[in-house]
Design a protein that fits this description.
The chain is of the alpha/beta class. It has helices spanning 10-21, 65-74, 115-123, 168-174, 182-189, 209-212, 250-255, 257-272, 296-300, 337-358, and strands at 2-6, 25-29, 41-43, 50-53, 58-59, 78-80, 86-90, 97-99, 108-110, 130-131, 136-141, 147-151, 156-159, 161-164, 199-205, 215-221, 226-231, 240-246, 281-286, 322-324. The strands form five sheets. Strands 8-7-16-17-18-15-19 form a seven-stranded mixed sheet. Bound molecules: flavin-adenine dinucleotide (FAD).
């Protein structure tokens, strides 16, 4: 049985892993130069040591059974989000306020960041079964119980089954799928891709100096550019870092990167003192510039957290040979890491059940 999985984010990699464990011949095709999708890390250039997350950071294994199961299977370790001390609150008075803010029950970070999940899932796959920098342009009926996958390069691949693990709006707008029913395309277009319009900033320091001043490294701000920020230091206290979500809209923040960085440093200094003005590095990851993740539909109206989408997103199409499996298709925690693991696992098991029925 040969299966093509389109998109090597967490859901695609999870699907590939379940299929591979069942003895299937799986090929993962990824448009981007690297795997991981919305999961991405900042690495030390020379040593390749993990420094910080540029995509997701938190999981809630206490409340997320699928994450808890996969973390155990993959040997993933977690640690508490640091939240000791006061947060700095901006925009609620003439001067910054200091007060503790409650953390979220059960919210933890992954040692090595969520890329540890990507590494663990991909490490055991044969590298020849993952093709990066290979955008898919269309999925067609092949006629002979097979599906044709057209690559943008002009190459055509065929498979018995296909799992589409790209963001739903990306698939609906950028992949040719002439067989797709209108109701499916409508449901896909209506499903925002969680966090696809967001940007994250990470400032790296020698020491988590804010902790000595009784600060949690946390900011809640009405003024920005960071609307919220958190301590992002590693579990052993090294690679001291603060990360924050940028509240400026994509067009404003993309106008002048230097201006954006100056404004972030000014805000960090206002909150944490003069030491914050000179980080070892300040990196901005703007997800709204990645055409493999975001579409104009996402950019035209800022989305709430996705709810559970209609059943058609989880059904098989094209005679049972094509399924969709990105986090937003999940019935459990759509849009989150938990949703990606659940969606990938569900689609792979559905493919295996479909194959066993055929024989
Ligand atoms: C800034 C940020 C913060 C977040 N914070 C959290 C958090 O703290 N906790 C949490 O649980 N979740 C968080 N999330 C959400 C989480 O990252 C996602 O739910 C998860 O990574 C989705 O994985 P996925 O594989 O389903 O989709 P994606 O990661 O979107 O993967 C889709 C893949 O498809 C590829 N692709 C697209 N088009 C094509 C094509 N034509 N051909 C081939 N490949 C294609 C893309 O390049 C991508 O690799 C955050 C996301 C972001 C961006």
């Amino acid at each position: 049985m040969n299966i093509i999985v389109i998109g090597a984010g967490l859901s695609g990699l999870t699907a590939a892993r379940v299929l591979r464990d069942a003895g299937a011949d799986v090929l993962l095709i990824e448009a981007g130069a690297q795997i991981g999708g919305r999961i991405r890390a900042l690495y030390e250039q020379k040593t390749n040591e993990y420094l910080a997350d540029l995509g997701p950071t938190w999981i809630w294994p206490k409340y997320q059974p699928v994450v808890a199961k996969w973390a155990k299977t993959l040997g993933i370790e977690t640690f508490e989000q640091f939240n000791d001390g006061d947060a700095v609150i901006l925009g609620y008075g003439p001067a910054p306020l200091r007060q503790p803010l409650p953390g979220q029950n059960g919210m933890v970070r992954i040692v090595g960041g969520p890329t540890a999940l990507i590494d663990a899932l991909s490490n055991e796959m044969d590298a020849t079964n993952i093709r990066t920098s290979t955008p898919v342009s269309g999925i067609y009926e092949d006629g002979s119980k097979r599906v044709s996958v057209y690559l943008r390069s002009g190459e055509i691949l065929t498979a018995e089954n296909v799992i589409v693990s790209t963001p739903l709006r990306v698939a609906a707008l950028r992949l040719e799928m002439p067989w797709a029913p209108q109701a499916l395309l409508d449901a896909m277009r209506r499903t925002p891709t969680w966090m696809s319009t967001h940007a994250k900033a990470v400032a790296l320091y020698d020491q988590p100096f804010w902790r000595d001043a009784g600060l949690a490294g946390r900011i809640a701000s009405r003024t920005g550019p960071l609307v919220e920020a958190h301590d992002h230091t590693g579990p052993d206290g090294t690679t001291a870092a603060i990360f924050g979500f940028i509240g400026w809209s994509p067009d404003v923040r993309q106008r002048d990167q230097d201006e954006l960085k100056r404004a972030i440093l000014k805000q960090l200094t206002e909150c944490f003192g003069p030491e914050a003005a000179n980080p070892m590095d300040l990196v901005v990851q703007d997800w709204a510039t990645n055409p493999n993740i975001v579409t104009n539909l996402d950019l035209s109206a800022l989305a709430n957290h996705p709810g559970v989408g209609p059943a058609i997103l989880r059904q098989a199409h094209l005679g049972g040979r094509v399924r969709f499996a990105v986090s937003e298709t999940s019935e459990i925690s759509p849009g989150l890491i938990e949703g990606a693991l659940a969606a990938g696992e569900r689609a792979a098991k559905d493919v295996l059940a479909h194959i066993s029925h055929e024989f």
